[in-house]
Amino acid sequence: MTDDIGQKALRSAGVEVWWARVGAAQDAFVRDLDPVERERLAAYLRDEDRARFLLGVTITRRVLGARFSLLPARIRLDRTCSECGKPHGKVRADGVELSVTHSGEFVGVAFSDQPVGLDVEKVDPGVDVDGVARIALSAEEARELERYDGIAKAQAFTTYWTRKEAVLKATGQGLRGELRAPAPAGIQVQELEVGADHRAALAVVSAEPPVVRVQDATLLLS
Ligand SMILES: CC(C)(COP(=O)(O)OP(=O)(O)OC[C@H]1O[C@@H](n2cnc3c(N)ncnc32)[C@H](O)[C@@H]1OP(=O)(O)O)[C@@H](O)C(=O)NCCC(=O)NCCS
Ligand SMILES: [Zn+2]
């Protein structure tokens, strides 16, 4: 019995997912940002985009600060893009795998011991599902969507889309990866519940379904 549990722990990745609402952003959070992050922050034109980026950085720094017993500002984050070298790539930190996502009301950060991808999208009722489906969905997924109409169709499409993005974010490929392909073996993908207006998905490299702990970031940010 004990052995079974021990074995399972070896095969299942552990993932912590932290969620915040965009309204939780405060100017004071800027204090903990590094120069690269301050430059990124200053370049956003819309307040909501600034707030989402700031929250992603702040959750990342505070969770890792607590984990590694360091001040949040002392956490070293590398955002180098693997394509062009600019600091807009997948966030990396020593000793942990990370994924940041933001859309609509939500900002989320996933932390794991294995490569992880988190994606949230606000459902866009006006999305041209049939148009995007041709480039983004497998034939089977496209057929499945034909069963839906209106907002239900947009929601179902967004579910597929976030699952795919989560996988591509786990591998670090982003949207350069093949969207129509099914998730490769060895990656566990699951939907996360975030209410009717958004869809979210988590992908993690793991032989078994991961042990996922979902956390509300309200206290962390207060
Ligand atoms: C990564 C990507 C899938 C994000 O999609 P999105 O739904 O628009 O945005 P999300 O909010 O879910 O994710 C953004 C976060 O993903 C992370 N990210 C950026 N590039 C990433 C990549 N290749 N893989 C995984 N995560 C990535 C960043 O942490 C970013 O948040 P931050 O800048 O606030 O820290 C998309 O932007 C993409 O495919 N980018 C890569 C495309 C590429 O290669 N560009 C090269 C430019 S030179
Ligand atoms: Zn780039």
From TrEMBL:
A GO CC term assigned to this protein in UniProt: cytosol
Lineage of the species this protein comes from: Bacteria, Bacillati, Actinomycetota, Actinomycetes, Propionibacteriales
Pfam families referenced in this protein's UniProt entry, alphabetically: ACPS
Source species of the chain: Kribbella pratensis
Molecular function as annotated in GO: holo-[acyl-carrier-protein] synthase activity; magnesium ion binding
Family in the record: Belongs to the P-Pant transferase superfamily. Gsp/Sfp/HetI/AcpT family.
Protein name: 4'-phosphopantetheinyl transferase
Keywords: Transferase
Gene3D superfamilies: 4'-phosphopantetheinyl transferase domain
Protein origin, superkingdom: Bacteria
One example of a Gene Ontology biological process annotation: lysine biosynthetic process via aminoadipic acid
Residue stretches making up the 4'-phosphopantetheinyl transferase domain: 115-181
